[in-house]
Structures are given as C-alpha cells and as structure tokens.
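Why do we care about 3D structure at all? Because function follows from shape, and shape follows, mostly, from sequence. That is the central idea of this module. The next example makes it concrete: a single protein chain, its amino acid sequence, and then its structure expressed as tokens.
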Amino acid sequence: MEEFIEKIKRLESQIIPENKVQTFEGIVDLIVECLAKYSKVNADEVGIILLTSNKNFLRFVAPKKLYKGGATFPISKRESISTKVITTLKAEIQNNLSSIKHLSIYEQVKTSETGPKIIQKMLTLPLILEGKATGVIQISRKGDTPEQSGPDFTQNDIQKILELSSSFLPSLIKSKPEFI
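And the structure:
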C-alpha cells in the first residue's frame, strides 16, 4: 500500500500542462492495477467513472477501451447504477446483476480471448472528495454464471476500497484533464 501511494504521489508531482493527460492516464493505470489486485479481478473488470466538468455526464476513464472510445452517459440515465450511487452517495453491492436492469456498455469490454462476458456481480462505490461526488468505482465479476464469476462482494470489500480510494482520489482529481 505504501509503495502504491508513493507511486501515485510521484506521478502527481510531475503534473505540468504539457503532460497532464499522460500523467492522469498513468495514475488511472496504477489505480486500476491496485484495485484489480486487491479485488482479484482482471484489470478490465475495474471501472472508474468520473463526473465531467459540466457535471451533466459520467465519463469512463477505465477500462482503457471505454476511456479511449470516449464512453460517456448522462447523469440523468435512470437505469444506471452509477447514477444512483453518485446521487445517493451510497455504495451498492449487486451479487446477481444479470437479473437487474442496468446499462450494458461495460459488458462490451472483452476480458478474455472468447469475447465479452456478462457482469454477474458488481460493487459500485461513490468517489467523494471534500464532501462532493466526483465519480464512482465499479468492480465487476464477469462470467457465464454467477458461480463462475467468483465470490460475492461484501460490506468488508466496500470498507477496504473506500479506505484505499481516500489515498488516491486527490491525485486523480488533481490530474484530471479539462476535457473530462
């Protein structure tokens, strides 16, 4: 954990206008790597979705495929679990996501050679800085069945990731490019 925080702080200290996007992407990559390792999921099963500067949209910054494609959706999208979490500021655990109506954009990300898998389980947490919502983290477990996707998420997972997010969130938001 200390090594992770040192790496984040080192990158943050290198922010200058000419390399802000590159630094931001480096910070996102470190965060995704850490969250994936902690949660025992693939990096493509970690989503980081930030509130845009105009506060009307949520923009994927991870997985990388969705970030590079500019994946964005309106904060008003009702079936979005992210919208609910960012509005209520309360984490949600969905250990049977396939039976709940939700946006499926995230499921299009290929996590294996066989193609995209269904998100069976998902943990969604608000990112809160100085009392304000800045985005959400989504950790998913994909598979053909809930059993194949891995263990259920728990309240303990929420607490651990909330603690972890407090260590990286200031650097993530400081490095966020203006176009997000």
